[in-house]
Amino acid sequence: MPARTALLVALLCSQSITAHAELTIQEHARRFLAIYSDLTERRDVDAADLYRPTAKVRVSYFNGETLIQSTLLTGEAWKDSLRRGWFDNTNRLDAAQFENVRVVPAGPSQIAIFATRISQEKCYLDTGYAVRISPQAANVYRINQERISIQMAAACQ
């Protein structure tokens, strides 16, 4: 086989493998977001288990466009806060859906997801939502980093 043909075949094969890998990353991200949405819609406290204890969670609280507070928490602190406040409604994740999802590889075994998070309970958009996940076990992903914005007042009509 001439060198040019071998090079072309190798190039085509590598593009095919890369495309397959991107589909796999997309599928893992889609599944993760589906689980996140399902747990929050069912108001299941097990949503706290999506976070690694070592995760870094940036939570920004807004009143309209005004930033009230922004806090960086460890995954363990965020999980504890969620568990303590889940049942008395002082702190829990809003039921969420995701649109405009963009997924990119983010280092070894990590996936970065950028999306518009739609609060189903308070009717607002979190246009800067970002999360970085990595596998804990086969097809089980956990959050390493998350940036989430929460509106203090509901925008529902």
Any descriptors?
six-stranded mixed β-sheet, alpha+beta, single chain, Nuclear Transport Factor 2, Chain: A, disordered N terminus, 32% helix, 157 residues, globular, 2 helices
Describe the protein in words.
- This protein is α+β, with helices and mostly antiparallel strands and 157 residues long.
- The chain has one domain (3-151): Roll (Nuclear Transport Factor 2, Chain: A), CATH 3.10.450.
- Helices cover 32% and strands 42% of the residues.
- It is built from two helices and six strands, in the order αββαββββ.
- A six-stranded mixed β-sheet has the order 2-1-6-5-4-3.
- It is globular and about 40 Å long.
Quick gist of this model?
The chain is α+β, with helices and mostly antiparallel strands and 157 residues long. It has helices at residues 3-41, 75-85, and strands spanning 51-63, 66-74, 96-105, 111-119, 125-137, 140-151.
SSE inventory with pairings:
Blueprint: H1 3-41, E1 51-63, E2 66-74, H2 75-85, E3 96-105, E4 111-119, E5 125-137, E6 140-151
Parallel strand pairs: 1-6
Antiparallel strand pairs: 1-2, 3-4, 4-5, 5-6
